[in-house]
Amino acid sequence: MPSRTETDASDDERPRDPAESKSLLERLPDPTNLALLGLLGLPAVFSSRFAVLSPFLYCFLFGLWPFVSLFLPTRGESPTEWIRTGDRWSTARFLLSMVPLQLNPYVQAQSVGQLLGHLDVYRRYRFDLPGPESFEQRATYRLPVEGEWTVVGGGHERDDSHSWSILAQRYAYDHVVTDDEGRTHAGEGSDPSDYHCWERPVVAPAAGVVVAASDGHRDAPRTRGWLDLRQRDIRGNYVVVEHASEEYSVLAHLREGSVAVREGDRVDSGQRIGLCGHSGNSTEPHLHFHVQDSPSFYRGMGLPVGFDGVAVADGPNGEPVPVERAALRAGQRVVQQKSEQSERPAETE
């Protein structure tokens, strides 16, 4: 959700010591995961014999941690400070719409499903979750878009993370398109079509096989921080592609009616799979992208992949500089460079 301002990464740009990055503090569950302890209190709801377990019900309040973190002080200036995703009231609209959204059974079911899925992730990895120092990607990834885009959220470090609390989305990215003034839209930005990324092509980040594709979810009618209270899936319209063993990309919030692939289709790197939209849990048109180790939306663990053949610029100024492989972070402008692989004609419908 691009209306959220991400916290800044450390000013120390030296390479991290792997031992330091695997400290006990970083291996402990995120505060949001402590909400799982609330499950221990559920027997007390159904029988007074288990009243002694009722205090565990308060642990469900840890599920509010992502919203509490919005008000915590940041460490210095945010790298996304220059990106203008809305007006000063956008965050207020987001928080206001979150209240009635709690009554949406689809959203609540998916939220609980993701939280329960963390149990399987921690079991599989024995709490030693994959990170930038330990993970070795198998597939070669390009950007899932064409032209210049801006990373409004995401990165490999905890302070840059799109959603550190949600394990599948720990290394996810939100992409938007900005103009020379850092604005993501023209005019007032009150309509999805005002946004620069609206209906831009979304392409496969690597060759693979489509394992899931969903279309037919409406694009939210409002923007500027408002969430769609009638959403049926927080991903909106989405595509999941298997690229290698235990490497699956997820591309979400696609334009309704634009998904151009179906389950079982083989796709080439750079092949069009849809258009950027505003469906699902979205505050304004943008593309959500991440790679996880499972096709399951609930039991996947996010993976910190790098992108090959891209040009990167930190902040709003300067031309993007080509790099061989980039680990992107919030606040960067990125462009996929032309190559033999990316010059293949994209298939549409």
UniProtKB/TrEMBL annotation:
Keyword set, alphabetical order: Membrane, Transmembrane, Transmembrane helix
Taxonomic superkingdom: Archaea
UniProt-annotated stretches for the region Disordered: 1-24
Transmembrane listed as a keyword: yes
InterPro entries: Cell_wall_metabolism_enzyme (IPR050570), Dup_hybrid_motif (IPR011055), M23ase_b-sheet_dom (IPR016047)
Pfam families registered for this protein in UniProt: Peptidase_M23
Name of the protein: M23 family metallopeptidase
Protein species of origin: Halogeometricum luteum
